[in-house]
Amino acid sequence: QICNQHNAEAPNLEQALHRMAQTEPNLDHDVSWLLLPSYWAKVVVALISFLCFANSYDGDFVFDDSEAIINNKDLRAETPLGDLWHHDFWGSKLSSNTSHKSYRPLTVLTFRINYLFAGGFYPVGFHVINIILHCTISVLMVDVFSILLGGLQFTNKGRRLNLAPKTSLLAALLFAAHPVHTECVAGIVGRADLLCALFFLLSFLGYCKAFKENKEGRNFSIFWVLVSVILGAIAMLCKEQGITILGLNAVFDALVINKLNLLELIQKLLHKDKSLENAGLLRKGLLFRITLLMSGGASILYIRWRIMGTGPPAFTEVDNPASFADSLFVRAINYNYYYSLNAWLLLCPWWLCFDWSMGCIPLIKSVSDWRIIALAALWFCLIGLICQALCSEDSHKRRILTLGLGFLIIPFLPASNLFFRVGFVIAERVIYLPSIGYCILFTYGFSLLSKQAKKKKILAVAVLGILLINVMRCALRSSQWRSEEQLFRSALSVCPLNAKVHYNVGKNLADKGNQSAAIKYYREAVRLNPKYVHAMNNLGNILKERNELQEAEELLSLAVQIQPDFAAAWMNLGIVQNSLRRFEEAEQSYWTAIKHRKKYPDCYYNLGRLYADLNRHIDALNAWRNATVLKPEHSLAWNNMIILLDNTGNLAQAEAVGREALELIPNDHSLMFSLANVLGKSQKYKESEALFLKAIKANPNAASYHGNLAVLYHRWGNLDLAKKHYEVSLKLDPVAPGTKENYNLLRRKLEQLQKKGG
């Protein structure tokens, strides 16, 4: 069938293909599956990958999207492009102690382009790009799997042959519709993994192009080898895993291009066999190419190390508890358990969760824990596959199993905790690339079963059923990623012991104003993790707003005791102490917060309020001025300065501050209102009137705006207009303080004028 697809080729090609078929087994031979021309195979894969995740296109920004996109200043036009190369993925300086050292400037650049084209934070454009990227990657997988499963062969005209069209299509469909990919596609932050995978695959395909003119491995293009190194570097600038493609290219070169038998090579090396000199490695250029790959990889890692700095990323015990265990045995056994769970997510991606930390997976602390069975099962399977990959007499089997294991394991190494601590327990997004190896092994297993099975069509229907289930699971999971409420609630059944899940459900409820329900989830988060300071802080905030000050103080005090540098908790503790009229303690808490976070405008604002309550007016003005210097758009701080200066009779200074504030925030109606009051007292009636009217236009239902404009007209002598706005104010707020009295005074004055006129 393959030969029939290439009838246009010269006869010598047909003979070559015939000889190849005789010398090397073909996976497609016994497989009952669709046989489509390359173009249509790619169309089918693109369509399936689109159907799986299309319903995520209009989702919100969820979970990590807030920090990586909405709160990331690197996306905004005012941030110099050069800053992207000195900041981490979240917009923090790489030199900062709090940086996670995730250096992905090219991914952030695509977010910035999204933001600029959309004219703001509109998630549709971000989601559409992610879906397009996954479809593109899935289409490229048809070519990649055809090489990995069928080998690398070119026609005399330099066109690459697909020697495994059926199995490459099956593997690509398995990849396109794998539910574990939902986080990468439906979560916008997953673009790092998608871009990394795109350039990862392009690097691999580029490396394959180096052998386009290859004859027995003797000829190769240095240009394409260097291109693959550059593409690997680009992949790493999208996400750290990208660098692993250079190692995989070397493995592919050794197994496919040079057809090395690894076990035989290891035995010869151990015995210092002189026949190695005649192995032809130098002649075929393998060592030279591997040297190029290693040199390129070492250079890339060195440059990244220089940019990133020598300090390790800052993670906490709740992020990755096993890595903080004192016992080497506990660390090793839990790392291996995590590997087994990752393998299970590839095999059975039914239980998916946006976050697997915070007690979701309790530590294994002894060999009596029944979960040890999972480790045993994992290593039993891995050792069996490795033995077959090394010892099988079938060279075709050795090649496919080794490549499958290579693509499964090598891209996972940066997330394995073997070389450095990572900031998660399990992350579904990091399995995006290793799933390539899983698809190879699954497809190879299917071909072996097909060879043995008498009813091949039943087996094909079973695999088709798995694909359909995966497509439906992808669609369902994508819909859960469309909003934070659905995403967080979906995790409650998967990880009920995860404190962060309860925290996020509570935070989502609090943001929607449902404080009573939020309190319940925050309390559960603190119960599950008694050191969860962020849950304590948020719960303390809600209790503070509900005037349950005693418990709020206890929670916030405990939070800063557990984490002494938690600036937000110190500030909130100060607010509670201020409400309890313990002013000295409140002041100390505010200054402690500022000590731990130098640029903290909200804390300066609250400190200013404390000083105002204590009639320390100069200190209050200085605190609010600091808040506006750090955050020029801090409307509340500007307003308080204007009001304080107004109340203390400093009208000229109040006017100057008001004008300065409106230059920075020209559309803030509260600032217009405050400045209009000052101008009215300074008898600048016309300008005051204009500002009042502008403020009312922006916020027509503010009773105080109409009431104070009425006072202005009252002073100015425009009594009819004063009467009109008093009445509007009283209609909006019948119990507005002072307005009714002023209105009654005006009515008496109007009655007196009418009597005089009469």
UniProtKB/TrEMBL annotation:
UniProt keyword list: Endoplasmic reticulum, Membrane, Repeat, TPR repeat, Transferase, Transmembrane, Transmembrane helix
This protein's record includes keyword Transmembrane helix: yes
Keyword Flavoprotein annotated: no
Residues covered by the DUF1736 domain: 311-383
InterPro entries hit by this protein: O-mannosyl-transferase_TMTC, TMTC_DUF1736, TPR-like_helical_dom_sf, TPR_rpt
Transmembrane segments: 39-57, 131-151, 163-182, 188-208, 220-237, 286-305, 372-391, 403-424, 430-449, 458-476
Catalytic EC class: transferase
SUPFAM superfamilies assigned to the protein according to its UniProt record, in alphabetical order: TPR-like
Gene Ontology CC annotations of this record: endoplasmic reticulum; membrane
Annotated family: Belongs to the TMTC family.
Protein name (database record): dolichyl-phosphate-mannose--protein mannosyltransferase
Species name: Pampusana beccarii (Western bronze ground-dove)
Gene label: Tmtc4
